[in-house]
């Protein structure tokens, strides 16, 4: 991102961009894991019994997916709660 004006970003703008970047990266990781897991379940032919290694990998992906879901929802909700506008003037109360 190139800024042409040369103006420096404020701390709140840097924080907002960092939150968006982290949220997008976590969401992309989550989507790729879900798509990969669904692809593996739907289109890859497997024997009736899963091997122990495959079972451990599926358990690990499941655990990571649950963690990413919780972390992503926590990230979104924590930043949405902080920047509330109680007096409805269009400026978050933190910035007033």
């Amino acid at each position: 991102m190139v800024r042409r004006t040369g103006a420096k970003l404020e701390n709140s703008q840097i924080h907002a961009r960092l939150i968006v970047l982290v949220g997008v990266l976590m969401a992309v990781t989550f989507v790729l894991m879900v798509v990969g897991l669904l692809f593996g379940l739907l289109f890859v032919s497997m024997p009736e019994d899963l091997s122990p290694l495959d079972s451990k990998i599926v358990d690990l992906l499941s655990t990571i997916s649950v963690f990413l879901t919780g972390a992503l929802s926590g990230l979104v909700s924590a930043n949405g709660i902080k920047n509330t506008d109680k007096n409805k003037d269009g400026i978050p109360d933190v910035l007033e």
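The CA atoms of residues 26 and 72 lie 7 Å apart. The mean pLDDT is 77.
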